[in-house]
Design a protein that fits this description.
The chain is an alpha/beta fold. Helix content is about 30%, strand content about 20%. This is Ribosomal RNA large subunit methyltransferase K/L-like methyltransferase domain-containing protein.
Length: about 200
């Protein structure tokens, strides 16, 4: 799902990428992997590699080498992940290290309402809390309001926000350019897309 969200955002690596509610860092990490054109699963093993009666010896290494040759490890990326919870930032940083992307992503403890930037032409991809418990609804709606207050005045940035709250636009304060229905497992969610107008 995280990789799909990055691809749906049509992000180009020369533009900033921000996840304001990054949790364990999944979306920024997927963005960095895609930005470097690193093949999915290149650093892990697969059960099919043990099927020696079906695959020629050395085929896995050959395929990995071919994929690795297509990666671009030199491209410079501007990727940031933020979360209000420092514990989640610690986890995100550890996951980033495990993925070998320490120099590609900056993680920082920061609330949505406290973020600002002078950069242009960026992309925001967020999977905020859905507020499924009744007690969370008010806090989540306040988060959506804060997003609207911060993001609406950023016309060159595109924002892609995934939530199961189909009233998101009401609290964000603006209708989406486009809505796309996605399923997170069995849960119906919508990707609310606000397309920016890039400044040349």
């Amino acid at each position: 799902m995280a990789a799909a969200l990055v691809l749906l955002a049509h992000w180009f690596t020369d533009n900033p990428f921000v996840d304001p509610v990054c949790g364990s860092g999944t979306i920024p990490i997927e963005a960095a992997l895609i930005g470097h054109n690193i093949a999915p699963g290149i650093n892990r093993s697969f059960a099919c590699e043990q099927w020696t009666n079906l695959t020629p010896a050395g085929l896995s290494d050959e395929v990995r080498d071919e994929a690795d040759a297509q990666a671009d490890y030199d491209v410079e990326l501007d990727i940031h992940g933020y979360d209000i919870d420092q514990n989640m930032i610690d986890i995100a940083q550890e996951n980033c290290r495990a993925a070998g992307l320490t120099h590609d992503i900056t993680f920082k403890q920061l609330a949505v309402k406290d973020w600002h930037t002078d950069k242009i032409n960026g992309v925001i991809v967020a999977n905020p809390p859905y507020g499924e418990r009744l007690s969370d609804h008010e806090a989540v709606h306040e988060l959506y309001r804060q997003m609207g207050d911060i993001y609406r005045p950023m016309p060159t940035w595109s924002k892609y926000i995934l939530t199961a709250d189909l009233e998101f636009e009401k609290y964000y304060g603006a209708p989406a350019t486009k809505r796309r229905k996605l399923y997170n497992g069995a849960l119906r969610t919508d990707l609310f897309q606000y397309w920016g107008k890039k400044k040349r």
